[in-house]
């Protein structure tokens, strides 16, 4: 519903009329009473009566609320509820409370609050109850003795918390100075609440090294003035107002020529300034030392001047050195003297600085003693140029030296060679002529930057002998005396579906124009298998054609230099399947995967088994000493064949070789021996057994020696064979595409070709030695004996690598 403007105006008028009635009604019940004052510096006792609250209507009871009652400052004001008398129970600080505002509440006889409020104001009158307070109770400052008058060297500050102007403002004043200053007056310059401290006249550390100044700050209160005090301590640092004076010198004053860093003199000084300060420490200066052969320092303990020879002196140049040495202090000299005082402004003083002073000076004489000086070369460095490969005996240069000593007419100078690392030159000891003794090679590692250096000495015969040194610089020009070289002649190339190649780099020790670029060329027979691309340059590539398979190849490469010099090199090239084609390396055995395959484990196991079998065979071939029974053909009572001379040797092996021995006649007629004695069959059998035993022993001894020799040779061949088998098997593992045990045959010769250039070692086994005494008709029972004695003749293996 829209409200029209006349209706809205009517509503506003009614609201204003209602509020006005309430205000008028409340104003009719307010009373205004007089204000009271309280002096901040009330000197009477507490409590005291401030005044009676008087109102138009009389009430039975009254109370007050606000500042001074339950608000800060609390419990200062109280009212008699029956009479309305206000009392003050403590002081009030004007700087915190300028006025106290209270509310008076009236009650009727029935102690009912009457809707009447009275406002009470109590004004606080300011009093001078705060003295000026310094920012610091104690100030301390140090100033140099040479500080000029009028310098402001410190600032003091104070503050007064009173409010009224007279009580708040204050003045600074110097009360006392201890000790009493002489030719000196301190004064203050005030600006509002701060003041600077200065002085008139001259400071003198010798008269007083410190001053204590008492300063007062006093306010301008009308009834009473309050004040406070601070102390200023001024330390006077000793200045250089006394010059050092040289009083003497000590020391030999002598030095040998050629010596350096030698103390020759000590200079003594006196100074009345404080020891250890910059005003006391001496600083010396040397005059008339054009060559700067001397230096002088200061002893920090004694303040003495220490005169040193810094650069060697030459007796032949001067026998004596005369020096003038002056002294002053590290701190500049300053002197102040008061000439006239005045009540206003600064005083008139006279100051003296270092620029107007005459320093203390003394003369020092240093005597130079003569010693034997080394010979002096007319030129300490000489340069010669020659071509390399020049024949020995070439004259290069002559070094000449003279003796600078005065009595050098009787001296003899001998020339010798010092540093000659390649021993290429010789020096004539009398003339100093230098000639070559060897052919000089520019490419030698003793030559640096085409220059070879030789050190030459010249020694005199003085006491002690002295030596001078010079250097000969031999500059060597290059010749074309080197052929091109290859950085590497062993190459690895990987099998790949793409381009297979290896880099070949050539270099020449000679300089341009005797070096590269180079020309590369393979033999004609390599065409279709290998090629060089490019054929010229410093680096080329050996490219493998697809017809070349894995294996080792020997290639011949000719490298030619820019001037036509050439060299032929044998390239050892290995082609293999690489694990990483970016890093060819065919000389490392590679296995599939990260571990050893089952085939390799089998090969290793079989090799170990074969080695164990060989060791077992050697063990079985070991001969042991024992007696072997030999059965008889007809009669078992014949006993055993035994060695009556020494124990026999029996080799327990299978029968590998058998020879039919002669059989003994089964019967033999009795015969007559040489002595005419009759020999029976039994005696003949006994004799026959002894004879056979002796022959058996000789037989076995020979077979045993032969067997030892054969065993050693067989063991070596078997060991070589095992290593070869292992090598072939492991190499087969390195080629992933080849099967185990699949070997390429080695062609030693072609069928029908009787010419060959190889030999096979042969091991020959000697036949059984022929012994007529062994040609007996022995029966089959001696076969066992024969097998034992012939046990060493067994099949032999021959393998040639």
UniProtKB/TrEMBL annotation:
<keyword id="KW-1133">Transmembrane helix</keyword>
<keyword id="KW-0812">Transmembrane</keyword>
<dbReference type="GO" id="GO:0000902">
    <property type="term" value="P:cell morphogenesis"/>
</dbReference>
<keyword id="KW-0677">Repeat</keyword>
<keyword id="KW-0732">Signal</keyword>
<keyword id="KW-0472">Membrane</keyword>
<keyword id="KW-0325">Glycoprotein</keyword>
<dbReference type="GO" id="GO:0016342">
    <property type="term" value="C:catenin complex"/>
</dbReference>
<feature type="domain" description="Cadherin">
    <location>
        <begin position="135"/>
        <end position="246"/>
    </location>
</feature>
<dbReference type="GO" id="GO:0007156">
    <property type="term" value="P:homophilic cell adhesion via plasma membrane adhesion molecules"/>
</dbReference>
<dbReference type="GO" id="GO:0008013">
    <property type="term" value="F:beta-catenin binding"/>
</dbReference>
<dbReference type="Pfam" id="PF00028">
    <property type="entry name" value="Cadherin"/>
</dbReference>
<dbReference type="GO" id="GO:0034332">
    <property type="term" value="P:adherens junction organization"/>
</dbReference>
<keyword id="KW-1003">Cell membrane</keyword>
<dbReference type="GO" id="GO:0044331">
    <property type="term" value="P:cell-cell adhesion mediated by cadherin"/>
</dbReference>
<dbReference type="GO" id="GO:0005509">
    <property type="term" value="F:calcium ion binding"/>
</dbReference>
<feature type="domain" description="Cadherin">
    <location>
        <begin position="378"/>
        <end position="486"/>
    </location>
</feature>
<protein>
    <recommendedName>
        <fullName>Cadherin domain-containing protein</fullName>
    </recommendedName>
</protein>
<dbReference type="GO" id="GO:0016477">
    <property type="term" value="P:cell migration"/>
</dbReference>
<dbReference type="InterPro" id="IPR015919">
    <property type="entry name" value="Cadherin-like_sf"/>
</dbReference>
<feature type="transmembrane region" description="Helical">
    <location>
        <begin position="596"/>
        <end position="621"/>
    </location>
</feature>
<dbReference type="GO" id="GO:0045296">
    <property type="term" value="F:cadherin binding"/>
</dbReference>
<keyword id="KW-0130">Cell adhesion</keyword>
<dbReference type="GO" id="GO:0016339">
    <property type="term" value="P:calcium-dependent cell-cell adhesion via plasma membrane cell adhesion molecules"/>
</dbReference>
<feature type="domain" description="Cadherin">
    <location>
        <begin position="264"/>
        <end position="377"/>
    </location>
</feature>
<dbReference type="InterPro" id="IPR002126">
    <property type="entry name" value="Cadherin-like_dom"/>
</dbReference>
<dbReference type="GO" id="GO:0007043">
    <property type="term" value="P:cell-cell junction assembly"/>
</dbReference>
<feature type="signal peptide">
    <location>
        <begin position="1"/>
        <end position="20"/>
    </location>
</feature>
<dbReference type="InterPro" id="IPR020894">
    <property type="entry name" value="Cadherin_CS"/>
</dbReference>
<keyword id="KW-0106">Calcium</keyword>
<dbReference type="GO" id="GO:0060027">
    <property type="term" value="P:convergent extension involved in gastrulation"/>
</dbReference>
<dbReference type="InterPro" id="IPR039808">
    <property type="entry name" value="Cadherin"/>
</dbReference>
<feature type="domain" description="Cadherin">
    <location>
        <begin position="58"/>
        <end position="134"/>
    </location>
</feature>
<dbReference type="GO" id="GO:0005912">
    <property type="term" value="C:adherens junction"/>
</dbReference>
């Amino acid at each position: 519903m829209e409200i029209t403007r006349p209706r809205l105006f009517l509503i506003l008028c009614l609201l204003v009329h209602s509020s006005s009635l309430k205000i008028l009604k409340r104003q009719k019940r307010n009373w205004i009473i007089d204000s009271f004052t309280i002096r901040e510096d009330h000197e009477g006792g507490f409590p005291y009566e401030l005044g009676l609250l008087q109102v138009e209507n009389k009430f039975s009871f009254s109370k007050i609320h606000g500042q001074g009652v339950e608000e800060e400052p609390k419990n200062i004001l109280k009212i008699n509820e029956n009479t309305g008398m206000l009392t003050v129970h403590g002081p009030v600080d004007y700087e915190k409370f300028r006025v106290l505002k209270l509310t008076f509440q009236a009650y009727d006889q029935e102690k009912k609050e009457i809707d009447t409020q009275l406002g009470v104001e109590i004004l606080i009158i300011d009093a001078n109850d705060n003295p000026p307070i310094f920012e610091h109770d104690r100030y301390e400052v140090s100033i140099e003795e040479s500080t000029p008058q009028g310098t402001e060297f410190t600032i003091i500050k104070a503050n007064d918390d009173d409010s009224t102007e007279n009580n708040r403002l204050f003045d600074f004043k110097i009360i006392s100075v201890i000790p009493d200053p002489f030719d000196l007056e301190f004064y203050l310059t005030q600006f509002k609440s701060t003041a600077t401290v200065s002085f008139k006249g001259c400071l003198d550390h010798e008269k007083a090294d410190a001053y204590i100044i008492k300063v007062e700050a006093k306010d301008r209160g009308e009834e009473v003035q309050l004040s406070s005090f601070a102390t200023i301590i001024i330390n006077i640092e000793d200045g250089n107002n006394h010059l050092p004076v040289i009083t003497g010198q000590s020391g030999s004053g002598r030095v040998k020529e050629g010596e350096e860093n030698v103390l020759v003199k000590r200079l003594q000084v006196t100074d009345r300034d404080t020891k250890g300060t910059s005003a006391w420490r001496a600083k010396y200066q040397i005059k008339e030392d054009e060559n700067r052969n001397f230096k002088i320092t200061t002893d920090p303990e004694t303040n003495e001047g220490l005169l040193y020879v810094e650069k060697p002196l030459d007796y032949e140049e001067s026998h004596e050195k005369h020096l003038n040495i002056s002294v002053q202090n590290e701190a500049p000299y300053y002197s102040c003297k008061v000439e006239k005082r005045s009540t206003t402004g600064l005083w008139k003083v006279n100051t003296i600085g270092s620029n107007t002073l005459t320093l203390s000076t003394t003369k020092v004489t240093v005597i130079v003693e003569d010693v034997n000086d080394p010979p002096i070369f007319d030129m300490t460095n000489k340069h010669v140029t020659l071509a390399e490969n020049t024949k020995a005996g070439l004259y290069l240069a002559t070094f000449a030296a003279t003796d600078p000593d005065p009595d050098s007419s009787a001296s003899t100078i001998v020339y010798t060679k010092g540093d000659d690392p390649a021993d290429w030159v010789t020096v004539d000891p009398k003339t100093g002529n230098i000639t070559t003794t060897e052919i000089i090679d520019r490419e030698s590692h003793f030559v640096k930057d085409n220059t070879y250096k030789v050190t030459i000495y010249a020694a005199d015969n003085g006491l002690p002998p002295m030596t001078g040194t010079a250097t000969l610089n031999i500059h060597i020009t290059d010749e074309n005396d080197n052929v091109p070289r290859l950085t590497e002649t062993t190459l690895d190339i990987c099998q790949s579906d793409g381009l297979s190649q290896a880099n070949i780099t050539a270099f020449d020790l000679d300089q341009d124009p005797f070096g590269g670029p180079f020309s590369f060329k393979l033999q004609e027979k390599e065409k279709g298998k290998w090629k060089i691309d490019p054929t010229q340059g410093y680096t080329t590539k050996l490219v493998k054609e697809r017809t070349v398979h894995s294996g080792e190849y020997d290639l011949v490469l000719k490298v030619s230099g820019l001037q036509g010099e050439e060299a032929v090199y044998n390239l050892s090239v290995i082609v293999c399947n690489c694990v990483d084609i970016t890093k060819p390396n065919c000389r490392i055995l590679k296995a599939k995967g990260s571990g050893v395959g089952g085939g390799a484990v089998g090969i290793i196991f079989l090799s170990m088994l074969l080695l164990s079998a060989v060791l077992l065979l050697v063990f079985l071939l070991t001969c042991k000493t024992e007696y072997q029974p030999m059965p008889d053909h007809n009669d078992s009572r014949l006993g055993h064949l035994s060695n009556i001379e020494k124990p026999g040797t029996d080799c327990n092996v299978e029968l590998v070789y058998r020879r039919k021995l002669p059989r003994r006649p089964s019967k033999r007629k009795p015969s007559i021996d040489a002595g005419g004695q009759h020999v029976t069959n039994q005696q003949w059998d006994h004799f026959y057994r002894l004879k056979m035993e002796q022959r058996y022993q000789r037989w076995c001894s020979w077979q045993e020696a032969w067997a030892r020799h054969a065993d050693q040779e067989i063991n070596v061949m078997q060991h070589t064979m095992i290593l070869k088998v292992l090598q072939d098997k492991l190499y087969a593992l390195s080629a992933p595409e080849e099967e185990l045990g699949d070997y390429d045959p080695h062609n030693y010769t072609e069928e029908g070709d009787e010419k060959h250039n190889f030999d096979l070692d042969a091991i020959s086994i000697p036949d059984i030695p022929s012994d007529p005494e062994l040609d007996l008709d022995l029966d089959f029972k001696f076969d066992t004996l024969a097998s034992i004695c012939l046990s060493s003749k067994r099949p032999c293996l021959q393998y040639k690598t």
